[in-house]
Amino acid sequence: MTVALASFGSSPAFAKDELFLAWQGGSREQLMREKIIPEFEKLHPVKISYVATVSTKLLARLKAQRTNQDIDIAIMDDGPIYQAGADGLCSASTPKHTDELYALANMDSANAVGIGVVATGIEYNTATFAKNGWAAPTSWNDLEDPKYKGQLGLISISNTYGLHTLMMMSAANGGSAPEYDAGFKALSEKVVPNAQAFVESTGNLSSAFQSGEISIAVNSNGRSLALANTGFPVAFVYPKEGAVATIIGACVVEKPKVSPYAVEFVKFLLTPEIQKIMAENEGMSPVNKSTTLAPDIAKVIPTGEQAMAALVLPNWDQLNKDRNNLARRWAREVERKR
Fold first, then answer.
1. Residue range 169-195: average pLDDT?
2. Which of 81, 198, 300, 302 has its CA 20 to 30 A from that of 64?
3. DSSP string spanning 191-258?
4. What domain range is 46 assigned to?
């Protein structure tokens, strides 16, 4: 199966006036509503309505509505979408990985496909740092610096980026999976005292930056680029210990009658034209090898096989097994310390 666009007639068996697409809110919702969905609707006789929700809540919703799904297309971070696939929530009709796509996009085992890649690292307010004479952070361990007390924004472990923070704080302090003891110790003793707040989503972090509540945070390069595109003074750092890859996955939701337009929409997201739009607006590294980016975009996001191979890839088979235990320990040892 290729990622080329296909046209469908209005077959009575599958014609559907409205499809429901679920992904995150904030700049990603704005991107879909303003630049991607309208272009798809010009090509097909269907209306797509957007449901804004974080990946973990979307996964819970799909599980709860297994026998009567209202969502047609789900976009989630890699961890939750692999869980969705394992639970039989993603349809085998989802477009599969092809040679047109980088290997990272292969989520065939989950009946999903990667539509883009973002990196988790550190973002900071360049104006605040300049005012205080602070050098840009270079390491995950810089989050421990007492000068950031009350300035640091962290995402809870319920979000993929919170889990990445635990992983990399452990790696930066000599620890490893599956216990992450070094990460829990560093977070509870040195990082949490600096935290202004724990938030649920990356959109909340962007709001906290804009309101002046925080000046440094763990976030994705994509969210940082989206914030920078608003004119806000923010920069993203790839820490020396490594930045973590998040593969944004899409799947057609399993249901008795899957609309062919849901399948076509996922294909549409994989075309070079839409890959370029997602890169320019959300900092998502394209998975389609034919995507051409402007030099100013290409220099700030990982592009090509070599650059993406340098990112840290989580072991989601193991992490999804351990996630509930890690979340309980996080609640007890990290967030309770505030």
1. 93
2. 198
3. IGGGEEEEESSHHHHHHHHHTTS-SEEEEEHHHHHHHHTTT--EEEE--TT--EEEEEEEEEBP-SS-
4. 18-117+246-308
